[in-house]
Amino acid sequence: MEGVYGDVSGQVDVNLSTNTTLYLKGGILFSDDVTKPNASGGFAVYW
Prior knowledge:
The chain is mainly β. It has one domain. The protein has no helices and three strands. A three-stranded antiparallel beta sheet has the order 1-2-3, with no helix packed on it. A hairpin with a 2-residue loop joins strand 1 and strand 2.
């Protein structure tokens, strides 16, 4: 196995009501020669 690589990320969930959640996720992917940030978000409705 050569090189160093990894993924560091975190997520925040915010309950807007009893059936709606807002989420935000961000992180970074890295290896010896590449560093790539990533982010996503959205909401979920449960019924």
